[in-house]
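Next up, sample data:
>
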Amino acid sequence: MTTSPLGRTDYADKYTVALPEPMDAPRFCALVLESAPAWLELVLSLRDRVAGPLGFNTQERNYGQPVELEVGRKFGPLVVESVAPELVVCGNTDKHFVFRSMFEVDQVRLRGSFSTEVQFSDRIGRAYFAVVKPFHQRIIPALVSAPFHSKARAESP
């Protein structure tokens, strides 16, 4: 458990990918969301059928579509909270947990990263994430890698 903008973080990860050219965080974020693999729709549909009746938020169905980043816009489970050249912050608050996803670029090293921080509100949120975590750890690197044709790798958050 670490301290974060959420107050505390019960889970955190970070996946980084090499960028083919300099770009800002909004462009990196848009490329990642617009290039979502087609199989993500199936995974999220299955997730919603199981998790929705348990009181979890369901997902927007707009991955792979053109992205215009504006505060308050929703992409899948992500709600845009702030947009700046160096960092895009998205998140969502669910009954059972709160999460933040950050899209960040390192202009010097030509790297883009997608970080996730989760704060559990109760045991149901913790149990849900225990089931979802292996999927999350496969989906996020695939999502980050898709537009760049290079493999994202895990880094310390």
